[in-house]
Amino acid sequence: MLVNRSAAPGPVVPVLVYANVGKAIKWLSQAFGFTERFRYGPPGNPDGAQLAVGQGCVFLTSPRVGQSPKWDDQAVFRAPRAGEVTHSVVVQVEDVDRHFEHARLAVRRAQPAPLPASAAPSPGRLPGQVRR
Fold this sequence. Notes:
This protein is of the alpha+beta class. The protein has two helices and six strands, in the order E-H-E-E-E-E-E-H. It has helices spanning 21-32, 96-109, and strands spanning 15-17, 35-40, 48-53, 56-61, 64-65, 76-77.
């Protein structure tokens, strides 16, 4: 059997849409400890990337229409808008308090941060706050 070394590990790999993939790579790495496996597209403004965390991965992609250049579809990949939740990812950690403090400090340093939908402003939560 052929092994695809660039394939993401794990049976489920979320695809997260960010308006600026480059900033999202930096922010997710600093705030949550993700490690970049690869990126594609223009060096200064990547179209997408694969990030690893623990035994899992996520794909990041920029907004676009169509799932593939070879497919004739009109699927819209859109970054989250304020007040909208389009996806959510759970990452299990050993020490939630230490991880929370690390993420909180990273968010403070990275303002304004490219927030995923799960961190979009909602009643009782400020932009950039991490769920605990």
